[in-house]
Structures are given as structure tokens and as C-alpha cells.
Design goal:
Elements (H helix, E strand, L loop, with lengths): L1 H8 L9 E5 L3 E6 L2 E7 H6 L4 H23 L1 H39 L7 E3 L2 E4 L1 H34 L4 H54 L13 H20 L9 H17 L1 H16 L7 E4 L2 E8 L3 E5 L5 E5 H5 L3 E3 H7 L2 E8 L6 H13 L11 E7 L4 E9 L5 H19 L32
Antiparallel strand pairs: 1-2, 2-3, 4-5, 6-7, 6-10, 7-8, 8-9, 11-13, 12-13
Helix pairs in contact: 1-3, 4-5, 5-6, 6-7, 12-13
């Protein structure tokens, strides 16, 4: 019956008073035109304790009142009103769009003015991360994003409102509204339910943050030697801090993981296993270099700035990373060496020896047997003492390393404190040896020089560096 009444109520030419009753020997029908709205039998009247004609008359009154209400709701006047409402909503939405775009243009002008007033370039150390032009573009983009989001929200509210104006589409309006509201409601409920977990994550992150700050402070104190620990070197402080910080953050991630949304889902766990497998299969060499870097740090074979020799490479250490070590040679060549290679090679540290003991440089010369060894030792020591960079305490010394067929071999040894100037000190030493021996008229027999005792001129410069001619 309700379906027939609803169908009749939507007619524009409806006359509710035209509902009438027609009786037969079997049933009594409530009708409108030639359409039966509802039928009653004697059994129906018996249930209501009346005759079927009385029941039909009572129901006709109810149906007429219902049709009058529906006529007012679905009449032409109401239709015109709904059309007016529809047009009004459309015009309002159009004006709201225009207002939103106008406000955005005003905001864009204000942002462009900020470029020459309040905006300043954002830099990290010497790197300009965001200049004023980039900041303006970023602000305009964010404003544009908010504009489109606000316009989308307007549409989401306006479209169900338009459908709700007409009774024929009211159910569709409710359906559209619930399509919009149900996801939003689910998100809001999810956020409210997640607040306890979020608070737990916040407490864990805050605790780890202050623990990291504590270890950073202790590392700074140890590095500056204001805090001294027996057996713990100051240059271990920062590497140890970085290791502890990594472990703390790893521990934090492990504690936070169960509280993350979707942590129990199979997809999330599958992705985690896949990423872990990729890392484990593809990073064996990287992990080996990192472990080697840690071992090198605590072995302390060298530190930044040291002059070292690694196999055939000699130079100063300019960078130490968890993966590689970089050395700059005396010819300004930067050599990158994997830490795992350093672990499997022998390293000579010139700077450490120079700092702690004094690095010994040495050079060999061969002098004829006709020159007294005491004179040779004296000249070599004087040449070493006149060399810039050679210290006089401990004093240079000379070793006689060989008595060859044609000449004895003398080795001069001298202490230096500046390993970085090793090549220049050697050069100055060799020059001073030549100058000193030339000044005394002593021939240097190396390399493999033989002088015949037949009156030949000695094999040395005719004039020394001072320009004084040699005596004949």
C-alpha cells in the first residue's frame, strides 16, 4: 500500500478527494481512478472488530490525508521552490568559487611582496638551501594547494545538498553524503583510537632523544679532555658516540615498531622481510668496510692529518669515513682506499713517530778510502744540523754501513718533528751534504764513481755555491 500511495503522491495532477470506495461481494477496495490502492476482506474487518466497509472508510481517510501532504510536497509550487533552491545553491557555489579565487589572488600578491620585505635566504653553513625566489614559489604552491583543497571541500558539501533538494534524488544525496562521511569518520575514529599508541611513541622518542644528548655531551667532554677515562683515548669519543647513537636509534625503532599502524598486517611484515633480505644480500662488502672502519678507529693506526705510507701510497690522511679513507699524496693526488683493504695491509705512520719519538731520516753517501772516516762523520753531522727541520736534540749520528771494494758507505741519521715536510727536508739535507763536502774538497764517490790516481781533476764543482773558486 505504501508504494501505491507514494506513486500517487508524486503526480502533479493529484486530487486527494477523488479517492473512493468500491465494494463487491468478496472485497472492499479503496481506489483512485481505476487504480486499486488497497483491498479489505471480511477477515481483515474481523481482525479490527468491524466490518470491511468500516475499515475501508477509516483507511480512506488516512490515505486522503497522506495524499494531501504529498501533494503539497510534490506539487508544482514545491517544484518551483526546489528549482529556485537548486539555482540558488549553484549561484552560491559559483560566487564562493569566485571569492576563493579572489582571496587566493590577494594572498599571492601579499606573498610576492614578502620577497623584498620579510623573506630572507635560508642557509645551512655556506650552502644556500632556499633563496627568496624559491621561498616565494613554495609559498605560492602551498597557497594554491589549500585553494584547491578548499574548493574540493565545497564541492563535497554542495553536491549532496543539490541532490537533497528534490525528493526523487534525496536517497542518492544521503548515499553520497555517507560515501564522504564514512571514510572521514573512520579516519577520525582511527586517530582517536591511535592516540594512546601515539603518546607511547612520543615518550619513547623523547627518552631516546635526551639519552643521545647525554652521550653527545659526554663525548664532547672526553674529546676536549675535560673528562678523562683510564684507557679511553680522546679520539675514540666521537666514533663511540656515533656507534651508541646508532644503537639507541635502532633500539628506538624496534620499540616503536609494534605501535605503528599496520605493523601486524602481513603486507607490512612482508615488505620488512623483503627490505631486510635485499640489504643482507647486497651489502656484504659495505658491511665489511664499516666493520673494518670501526676496527681501524679503535686500533688507532693513524688519525686525520697524519703522514702515512700504505703499501705503495704515501701521503696525509684527509678524511676517514665508515667506508673509506682518503689520502692526499705530496703531489696533491687524492687516493681513496676501502677500509677493508687497510685492514689487510701494513701501515707506516710517520707523524706518530715524529710526535712521540722524533722521526729518523737517513741518507747514504760513498766516500773514497783516502778520506778519514772521522772527517766524513763530522761533515755529515754538520750538513744535517744545517738542514731546516732537523733537531739538534737528539743529535744526528753517522753509521758506517758497508766497506765496499771501491769505497766505504756512510749513513747519516737525523731526527725531525715535522713529518709533513719529509720530502723538503730530504732535499735540503742532500743539498747541504753536497755543499759541505764541496767546501772541504772531498769527493762524493756515489753513485759508483771511480777516480783514477793519474792526476785527473777531482769530480766536484769548480765553484761552490758561495761563488768562491776552489784552490788548485
Amino acid at each position: 500500500m505504501s508504494h501505491e500511495i507514494t506513486t500517487l503522491g508524486k503526480r502533479f495532477n493529484l486530487h486527494p478527494d477523488s479517492v473512493y470506495i468500491e465494494s463487491t461481494d468478496i472485497v472492499t477496495d479503496v481506489m483512485y481512478g481505476d487504480k486499486v490502492i488497497v483491498s479489505f476482506t471480511d477477515q481483515d474487518g474481523l481482525w479490527e472488530s468491524c466490518t470491511r466497509d468500516q475499515l475501508a472508510a477509516a483507511k480512506r481517510t488516512v490515505i486522503v490525508e497522506k495524499l494531501k501532504v504529498m501533494k503539497e510536497e510534490h506539487g508544482l509550487l514545491q517544484l518551483f521552490k526546489r528549482i529556485a533552491y537548486f539555482v540558488l545553491v549553484l549561484v552560491g557555489q559559483f560566487l564562493l568559487f569566485k571569492l576563493t579565487n579572489w582571496l587566493f589572488r590577494k594572498l599571492k600578491v601579499r606573498i610576492l611582496r614578502l620577497r623584498n620585505t620579510r623573506l630572507k635566504a635560508f642557509s645551512i653553513q655556506d650552502f644556500e638551501l632556499l633563496d627568496t625566489q624559491k621561498q616565494v614559489r613554495l609559498l605560492v604552491f602551498v597557497a594554491n594547494l589549500f585553494r584547491y583543497a578548499f574548493m574540493l571541500l565545497q564541492l563535497l558539501l554542495t553536491v549532496p545538498m543539490l541532490f537533497a533538494i528534490f525528493p526523487q534524488t534525496k536517497n542518492l544525496a544521503y548515499q553520497l553524503f555517507f560515501y564522504i562521511w564514512d571514510p572521514v569518520k573512520s579516519i577520525l575514529y582511527g586517530i582517536l583510537a591511535y592516540i594512546p599508541n601515539l603518546f607511547t611513541i612520543f615518550v619513547i622518542c623523547l627518552a631516546i632523544k635526551y639519552l643521545v644528548r647525554l652521550f653527545r655531551y659526554l663525548a664532547g667532554e672526553v674529546q676536549s679532555e675535560r673528562l678523562k677515562l683510564n684507557g679511553f683515548y680522546p679520539d675514540w669519543a666521537m666514533p663511540t658516540y656515533h656507534i651508541i647513537r646508532f644503537l639507541l636509534y635502532a633500539f628506538m625503532v624496534a620499540m616503536i615498531y609494534p605501535y605503528l599502524p599496520g605493523a601486524d598486517s602481513g603486507v607490512f611484515q612482508g615488505i620488512s622481510v623483503f627490505v631486510g633480505l635485499i640489504v643482507s644480500l647486497g651489502s656484504s662488502t659495505v658491511i665489511g668496510n664499516i666493520i673494518a672502519g670501526l676496527v681501524i678507529t679503535y686500533m688507532r693506526p693513524f688519525k686525520l692529518g697524519d703522514r702515512i705510507q700504505l703499501n705503495e701510497t704515501t701521503g696525509n690522511v684527509v678524511e676517514k669515513t665508515p667506508l673509506v679513507t682518503r689520502i692526499r699524496t705530496p703531489k696533491n693526488e687524492v687516493v681513496t682506499i676501502p677500509n677493508s683493504f687497510i685492514m689487510s695491509s701494513h701501515t707506516v705512520n710517520f707523524s706518530q713517530s715524529a710526535r712521540e719519538y722524533g722521526l729518523i731520516i737517513h741518507s747514504e753517501v760513498t766516500i773514497g778510502y783516502d778520506v778519514p772516516w772521522r772527517l766524513v762523520n763530522k761533515l755529515l753531522i754538520e750538513a744535517a744540523l744545517n738542514t731546516p727541520g732537523v733537531v739538534d736534540d737528539p743529535r744526528p749520528f753517522v753509521l758506517s754501513t758497508s766497506l765496499s771494494d771501491w769505497y766505504p758507505v756512510y749513513q747519516v741519521n737525523a731526527y725531525i718533528k715535522e713529518a709533513d715536510r719529509l720530502a723538503q727536508i730530504y732535499s735540503d739535507l742532500h743539498q747541504n751534504i753536497q755543499d759541505r763536502f764541496n767546501a772541504e774538497g772531498v769527493e762524493i764517490m756515489s753513485p759508483h764513481y771511480m777516480a783514477m790516481c793519474d792526476g785527473n781533476d777531482p769530480a766536484m764543482p769548480k765553484d761552490d755555491l758561495s761563488g768562491r773558486p776552489k784552490e788548485k
